[in-house]
Amino acid sequence: MPESQLLPSGPFTRQQADAITSRYQNVAIEDDQCSHFRLVVRDSDGLMVWRAWSVETDAGEGLNHYIRQYGILRAPSC
What we know:
The chain is an alpha+beta fold. The chain contains two helices and three strands. The protein has helices spanning 14-23, 59-70; strands at residues 27-30, 38-42, 48-53. Strands 1-2-3 form a three-stranded antiparallel β-sheet, with helices on one face. It is globular and about 30 Å long.
């Protein structure tokens, strides 16, 4: 999966998070505080495997690892 389709290694924006959640059916924005939020990755059974606040120093690095491992791509729309 090309790195351009993942998050930056540090903090990320809502626009970047929205791009990821539109690509993966098991990645979601939760605990939305408007200025910051958590992005959560779940496995195929719906169990949380990783989460990070958008403002964490290394948020994207951890999330990218789990998105690569557990990410379930959405079917392309016609």
